[in-house]
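[job 4471] stage=fold_predict status=RUNNING
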Amino acid sequence: MMDMTITEEHRWLQRLVGEWTSEAECIMAPGQSPTTLRGREPVSALGDVWVMGKGESEMPGGGTGRTVITLGYDPAKGRFVGSFIGSMMTMIWLYEGSLDAEGRVLTLDAEGPDFGAPGRIAHYQDIVEVNSPYSRTMTSRMQDADGAWHPVMTARYRRVG
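[job 4471] inference complete, writing structure tokens
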């Protein structure tokens, strides 16, 4: 068994635990209008150091997409860590990130395919902002080859339980 100390960062993650509904605006391709998708995400604690969300949402063109996100904090790295998988993709996204100075915004960095330039690896950020105990937002964005950031998705979550 590992010796572990619960940190403020671990306690911060516990704020995400609960039942959430979501409404997301996704940009499927540059220049297209956003698509609105609705869903739900129960987030549970795995002990005192991890949280796990299992989401379900509408998919563009119909059907239901399922996702799993894990988040924790690694004191040895001094960084938040996690992963994201979805039924609509074949890759696993690996996160590392940090909180802002006010302790409200968690920015998670990842790398993945540039959907506009096949073969290029792009930098992505999922930015989680806790607005209140009953509201949070997640904004996803991608950095292009010129260094400019482009929105991919914005999801607004409301706690229902």
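[job 4471] summary: The chain is about 5% helix and 60% strand.
[job 4471] exit 0
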